[in-house]
Design brief:
With 246 residues, this protein is mainly beta. It has helices spanning 29-50, 146-149, and strands at residues 56-58, 68-74, 77-89, 92-108, 129-140, 162-173, 205-206, 214-216, 227-233, 239-245. It contains 2 helices and 10 strands, in the order H-E-E-E-E-E-H-E-E-E-E-E. Strand 2 (68-74) and strand 3 form a beta hairpin.
Length: 246
C-alpha cells in the first residue's frame, strides 16, 4: 500500500552513499527514505553483479532451499511441495519460512508474459511446466500488519511503513523445444508490454440564456479532482479501502 511521502527522489544515479544527520536540524521523511533507497540500491546492484541477474542462487549451507519436491493437482489448483530456506532471486534476498517443507499454490503466468497462458485442465502426460519464482518489492502499511506496525499507545494511526520483498510461485507452460535455460527473455516484464490508458474530456455542457454557465464536462481543475484508491487484502481476509485526494 502506497505511503504518504512528501517527495520521492530517484537518487541511484547521483553517486550518493549515505545520509548524514546534523545536530539541531529537522529530520524529514525524505531523509529516512533516501537512506533506505541507497541501502537497497547497493544491495541489489551488488547481488546482481556478484551472483547474477535472472537466476535463483542457493547457498551451499542450504543446498535444498526452494527445491521443488513434488507437484500435484488438488481441487483444480497446482500445489507445490517445496523445501524451506533462504536464497537470492534476481539479486533480491528471499526467505521461504518453515520447518523443513512447505506447500504453496502455483498459478500460471498470464499475458503479456505468456499468451495464451497454461491451464490446469490441460495437464496430462507430456505436458511440462517451468516453476518460476516471481519476486518484487512493495510497501507494507501498518494496516496490512497491524499487530506489528500499529502502536496501540497512539490510538490507532499508522506511522512508518516497511519495505517488503514479496514472492509467489508461478508456472510457465513449456513448448517442445523450451526448457528453463532458454525462456529467460520471455519472462522479462517490460513496460512496453503493458496496456495503455487514454484519457479524454467530456464535452462541456452549459445553461442557455444571455449568461451561460458551464454545468459539466471539460476541464474542472485537474490538480484537485484526482483520487487515488487502493484495495488492500489484510490478514482477516476482509478487503480494506484506502483513498486520498491529490
Amino acid at each position: 500500500m502506497k505511503g504518504d511521502f512528501s517527495r520521492w527522489d530517484k537518487i541511484q544515479e547521483q553517486n550518493l552513499n549515505g545520509v548524514l544527520h546534523q545536530q539541531g536540524r529537522v529530520l524529514l521523511d525524505r531523509d529516512w527514505n533516501d537512506q533506505t533507497q541507497l541501502t537497497i540500491n547497493w544491495q541489489d546492484s551488488a547481488a546482481k553483479q556478484i551472483i547474477g541477474a535472472n537466476v535463483a542462487a542457493i547457498s551451499t549451507q542450504e543446498p535444498n532451499a526452494f527445491k521443488v519436491i513434488r507437484a500435484t493437482v488438488n481441487e483444480g489448483k497446482v500445489k507445490l511441495k517445496i523445501h524451506s530456506g533462504q536464497g537470492w532471486a534476481d539479486g533480491l534476498a528471499v526467505t521461504l519460512p518453515g520447518e523443513l517443507t512447505v506447500t504453496r499454490t502455483a498459478t500460471y503466468l498470464e499475458p503479456p508474459i505468456q499468451d495464451p497462458s497454461g491451464k490446469v485442465s490441460d495437464i496430462n502426460n507430456g505436458i511440462r511446466d517451468a516453476v518460476i519464482l516471481e519476486v518484487w518489492r512493495e510497501e507494507l502499511n501498518g494496516f496490512q500488519m497491524p499487530e506489528t506496525l500499529i502502536e496501540p499507545a497512539l490510538g490507532g494511526p499508522d506511522t512508518t511503513e516497511r519495505v517488503l520483498t514479496s514472492m509467489r510461485f508461478r508456472l510457465f507452460r513449456l513448448a517442445t523445444d523450451e526448457d528453463c535455460h532458454n525462456i529467460t527473455d520471455k519472462l522479462k516484464d517490460g513496460v512496453n508490454k503493458k496496456g495503455k490508458l487514454t484519457v479524454s474530456l467530456q464535452d462541456p455542457t452549459a445553461t442557455g440564456g444571455d449568461c451561460p454557465v458551464v454545468e459539466g464536462g471539460g476541464y474542472t481543475g485537474f490538480e484537485h479532482q484526482l483520487y487515488r484508491i487502493e484495495i488492500a487484502q489484510v490478514k482477516d481476509n476482509v478487503p480494506m479501502f484506502k483513498w486520498s485526494q491529490f
